[in-house]
Every structure is written in structure tokens, then in C-alpha cells.
Amino acid sequence: MAKITTLLFDCDNTLVLSEELAFEACAGLINTICEERGVEARFSGETLIKEFVGQNFRGMLTTLQSKYSIEIAPDDMEKYVLMEEDAVIAKLKESLRPCPGVDEQLERLEASGKYLLSVVSSSALRRVRASIEKVGQDRFFKGDVVFSAATSLEKPTSKPDPAIYLHALKKLGRSAGETVAIEDSKSGTLSGTRAGIKVVGYVGPYADDKKAEMEQVLKDAGAVIVMKDWSEFPSVLEKIEAGSI
């Protein structure tokens, strides 16, 4: 029997339906950066999601530099990161909604008193806090339990680097063996798995014709089980605690 004491939730498209809004908001900035550096490629929110889902903006810019052999000076990088944060937060404050069914599960988990609930995201802390506050989920994550790969670490990084999960475990005083993470992306699943944590995959926000493909992607990345809907979570957690997965 696995004694699970801690649940670590990814934020974007796991707790809140933010990916589409966020990518829409940052596509214009990415295109400006490309144009200024003579890169012909242009992106829409949709094409950015396909190429960069699970990465934070800093990670996207790092990938862009490598893929198109361009250079973004450190000062410019910081400027762009802040510009993107502002644009995305404005968009999220306007239109953000929770993932269907997740609030019911958070309420049930909190009422049980059995688990420490935490958020572990690649996105900037300011954005994560704005997201969970907008939809009223901040009431479930009390104290210093919200972590960001872009902000919380001494050296900013992005999933699939496991650094943010290892940092969260250290700060929370928990071991990987007593922890379950919930992730919707390949990079997030790899991040949690590489930190030694059992990861539950979630494909709810993906288009119906993409769900089966993403389920396989998350399993290949190490997810121990994949759920399509948050209503499945109680039985998933029960299986993990029983040691059957």
C-alpha cells in the first residue's frame, strides 16, 4: 500500500483552461521577435500550442534560438518574458475558466483532510497565482505551496527538467514516494517522472480527435494512468494507493 500524502497539480490545462488563451496572447510577441531577427516563420496560437505545449515562454524562446540559429540577448530575454506575462495575465483575467469537474475534486480532497495540495507549474508565479485566483481555486492552495519553474528556482528553467518538482518536494518536506502529480503535457509528465513521482495523465482539454494520440504520448512519457475526465480521479487515486498501479 502506498501512503499518498501530497498531490501536485500542474496548472495550465490541468486546473484551468489557459493554454489556448495564453498561446493566443503570446503569438504576436513571438512573431515580432522572429520578424526583428529575420526569421520568416510566423505562428498563430494554434501552431504555437502544437510546437511548444508544456513549455514556459522562456523555454519557447530558448527553443526558437536553437531552431532558427538566432540570438536573444539576456536583457531582451527578460524584457520579452515580462511583456509576455503581462499580455497573458490580461487575457486570463478576462476569459479564464476552470477545467470541467476539477473544482468538485479539489473540494472533495480538501474536505477529506488527507492530502497536502500544491501547484507545480512551468509558468511564471505571477501568472499561476492570477490563474487560480481568477477561478477561485486559490482557496485550496494555502500557504507557500505554489511553485513555478520560471520563478521559484535560483536558475529559471522549464519542464521537462525535473528541477521544479524536486524543488517542490524539498520545500514541502515530502518524498517522491508519497506524492502523485497530475499533468496534461509530455514535458510535464517527463518532469514529474524524472523526479521519481507517479504521474497521472489528463487529456480532458484536448480535442476529441486528439485524445487517443495524447493518451499514448503521456503514457510513453511515463504516466502510470491517463484520465479523460476529472470524475475518474477518485478511482485513479484509489488504485495508486492500493498499489495496483
Short précis:
The chain has 245 residues and is of the alpha/beta class.
Structural class: alpha/beta
CATH fold-level topology of the largest domain: Rossmann fold
C-alpha Rg (nearest Å): 17 Å
Residue-averaged pLDDT = 95
- Unreliable runs, pLDDT <50, ≥5 residues? none
CATH class membership of the largest domain:
Alpha Beta
Distance between the termini: 11 Å
Q: Helical content, roughly?
A: 40-55%
Q: What's the number of extended β-strand segments?
A: 6
Count of individual helical segments: 10
The CATH homologous superfamily of the largest domain is named HAD superfamily/HAD-like
SSE run? EHHHHHEHEHEHEHEH
Strand order of the largest sheet: 3-2-1-4-5-6
Number of separate structural domains: 2
Largest sheet: 6 strands, parallel
Protein name: Phosphorylated carbohydrates phosphatase
GO molecular function: metal ion binding; phosphatase activity
Organism: Clonostachys byssicola
Keywords: Carbohydrate metabolism, Magnesium, Metal-binding
Structure description:
With 245 residues, the chain is α/β, with parallel strands linked by helices. The protein folds into two domains: 6-17 and 97-242, Rossmann fold (3-Layer(aba) Sandwich), CATH 3.40.50.1000; 19-95. The protein contains ten helices and six strands; from the N terminus they run E-H-H-H-H-H-E-H-E-H-E-H-E-H-E-H. It has helices at residues 19-36, 45-52, 57-68, 74-95, 102-112, 125-134, 163-172, 186-194, 208-220, 233-242; strands spanning 6-9, 116-121, 146-148, 179-183, 198-202, 225-227. Helix 6 (125-134) links the parallel strand 2 and strand 3 (146-148). Helix 4 (74-95) runs parallel beside helix 6. It is globular.
